[in-house]
Design brief:
The protein is of the alpha/beta class. The protein has helices at 5-13, 15-47, 52-99, 105-109, 112-125, 127-152, 156-181, 187-204, 206-211, 215-267, 276-289, 292-320, 376-383, 406-412, 427-431, 440-449, 470-482, 500-513, 549-555, 558-574; strands at 336-343, 353-360, 365-369, 391-396, 399-400, 413-416, 425-426, 460-461, 488-492, 518-523, 534-539, 542-547. The chain folds into two domains: 5-320, ABC transporter type 1, transmembrane domain (ABC transporter transmembrane region fold, Up-down Bundle), CATH 1.20.1560; 336-422 and 488-574, P-loop containing nucleotide triphosphate hydrolases (Rossmann fold, 3-Layer(aba) Sandwich). Helices cover 63% and strands 10% of the residues. β9 (488-492), α18 (500-513) and β10 (518-523) form a beta-alpha-beta unit. The two termini are 67 Å apart. Keywords: ATP-binding, Membrane, Nucleotide-binding, Transmembrane, Transmembrane helix.
């Protein structure tokens, strides 16, 4: 896949503005050449004291060309930048849309700061692909060809000199810049991404770094990365300056060449002296249009590097995301079946799950218990399609999970995770994330069922719920899920931060609302599990026991021992 294919598609969508910009750029360029050529011819003519009408015509032509150049240049800038900003907008939305199906897997491979650098920095860099890479060669070729044809009318030798100069500024100078640019390609962008990544982590972990006395060390690390970035940017700017300096040198060299060659041709009688100033001014102006060619390699490599990073992420999104498939009805009862499931995290030597087979009939209540790290939450990720099993298959309503549309799965599932995100805004706004319009009475009643009767809907919630306790976060997440209408409940440690009394009250409301629905409860506390149809005990990624509460207690196995330990701990706490 071509790294710049996504940008090429965006350019095609903005082809109207691009064509107008190219037309405006050509008119502005050729008008500039004729403007300065006419000025040089006018200066030369004044020496010979021409008729007044000749001077009037030439002066009027200079004014008209000046106005034409200014107007067309304005139009060229207007439409080229409008096309560029429209393309950037399309690229941002396209990249973000491709990124969504990747989560949370992409966050396990890329740090959030790096993703932020891609969304902002890499996409922003692609604006230069059109303005500095694709656009200038078209204008340069068009203006140069027109100027060479114009010059060849007066002297084929000077036209040949223009051709030589065009080859140098279009190929030789960019090649010299490219040789130096290869040494630092990707370094500046990589350092910018590293700085964004580290800065994001410092912001997220500021309190922990402060508490553990590591803030100074991370600040120093940020300063080192920043210094490295600044040094790379200076080297990058130096290469751009080198290209511009070489271009200026070649421009003056060609102009001096036109002057010397023109003088020689005048002495031989092959060129009228009145045209010499005109040709010199034309050489100065036409090479001004080619100035962008000197820095083209730098912008080209920068754009290619940014496009490559974006393409890698988009390609990964295509590989990770599920195809559009069957829809899971929100109103339909849900059955779930896991057959010989195994899963191993990338880079881990030990599988997180091994030979997991589990069936959840419609309307059943199932609890999965076990020690921390036993694989309980991984099962939740697999059921929601957030990860794909290494082996085995998952079926929902007898349909393979990968054949179902991801959005319909999430719409049909009422999910409370261990860590829930809350957005800055009011409690009402955080409760109405699904977009449905509930009355304040319904929202207040739901808060009461979730154990938040004293909260007001207008209370402010900080970003990620920073002003809420862990227990309040869990209860708000439960209230949010109580407003959903799905038939599959997946609750991952929903009440781990609540006291016993509040926990039983909240779970009672959940069981009442989910009486006819399929419910999967992930927990490490074993209180109240006698209401479950089946209890599955997981340890080290394997199912070690399963059965009803009474059956497991009669077996006096793993679950029985866990229950005994919990009773001892509760007794010690009460004592």
């Amino acid at each position: 896949m071509n790294d710049l294919a996504i940008l090429s598609k965006a350019m095609i969508q903005e082809r109207k503005d691009i064509v107008i910009a190219i037309l405006g750029g050509f008119i502005a360029g050729i008008a500039g050449v004729f403007l300065f050529s006419t000025s040089g011819y006018l200066i030369s003519q004044t020496v010979f004291m021409p008729p007044l009408y000749t001077l009037i015509v030439l002066t009027s032509l200079v004014k008209m060309l000046g106005l034409l150049r200014a107007g067309s240049r304005y139009g060229e800038r207007l439409y080229s930048h409008r096309a560029t900003f429209s393309m950037l907008s399309r690229l941002r939305t396209t990249f973000f849309a491709k990124l969504i199906p990747l989560t949370p897997g992409v966050l396990n491979k890329k740090r959030s700061g790096d993703l932020l650098a891609q969304i902002v920095g890499d996409v922003e860099s692609l604006q230069f692909y059109f303005l500095r890479v694709a656009y200038p060669p078209v204008i340069v070729v068009m203006v140069f060809l027109a100027t060479i044809l114009f010059t060849s009318v007066f002297s084929i030798w000077i036209a040949a000199l223009f051709v030589l100069g065009m080859i140098v500024v279009a190929f030789v100078v960019p090649a010299i810049v490219l040789i130096g640019q290869r040494k630092i390609v990707g370094h500046v962008r990589g350092q910018r991404a590293a700085l964004s990544t580290e800065f994001t982590e410092v912001l997220y972990g500021f309190r922990e770094l402060k508490v553990y006395g590591q803030l100074k060390q991370r600040e120093q690390q940020l300063q080192n990365i920043s210094a490295d970035l600044a040094a790379g940017q200076r080297r990058e700017a130096g290469h751009l300056l080198l290209g511009q300096s070489l271009h200026t040198f070649v421009t003056f060299l060609i102009s001096w060449g036109v002057l010397v060659l023109g003088a020689s041709l005048i002495m031989k009688g092959q060129l009228a002296g009145v045209f010499l100033a005109m040709l010199v001014m034309a050489s100065l102006t036409v090479f001004e249009e080619a100035a962008a060619m000197a820095t083209l390699p730098a912008y080209k490599q920068d754009s290619e590097h940014a496009a490559n990073r974006l393409t890698e992420t988009v390609q990964a999104a295509k590989e990770e995301s599920s195809p559009s498939g069957g829809l899971l009805s929100v109103q339909q009862g849900v059955s779930v079946k896991l057959s010989d499931i195994a899963f191993q995290y990338e880079g881990e030597w030990r599988p997180a799950l091994k030979n997991i087979s589990l069936e959840l009939p419609p309307g059943s209540k199932t609890a999965i218990v076990g020690p921390s790290g036993s694989g309980k939450s991984t099962i939740v990720d697999l059921l929601l399609g957030l990860r794909k099993p290494t082996e085995g298959e998952i079926r929902i309503n007898d349909v393979l999970l990968e054949d179902l549309n991801e959005t319909s799965i999430w719409a049909a599932a009422n999910v409370v995770l261990q860590h829930n995100h809350f957005f800055r805004g009011t409690l009402r706004e955080n409760l109405l994330l699904q977009g449905e319009d509930y009355s304040d009475e319904v929202l207040t009643e739901t808060l009461g069922k979730a154990g938040l009767p004293n909260k007001s809907l207008s209370d402010l919630v900080y970003e990620n719920g920073e002003n809420l306790s862990d227990g309040e976060k869990q209860r708000l997440a439960i209230a949010r899920v109580m407003l959903r209408k799905g038939k599959l409940w997946i609750l991952d440690e929903p009440t781990s931060s609540l006291d016993y009394v509040t926990e039983q009250r909240v779970l009672g409301h959940i069981y009442e609302q989910a009486a006819e629905d399929t419910l999967l409860l992930i927990c490490h506390r074993l209180i109240g599990l006698d209401q479950m149809d089946q209890i599955v005990v997981v340890d080290q990624g394997r199912i070690v026991e399963r059965g009803s509460y009474s059956e497991l207690m009669e077996q006096q196995g793993y679950f029985y021992e866990m229950k005994g330990i919990e009773r001892q701990m509760v007794g010690e706490d009460r004592a």
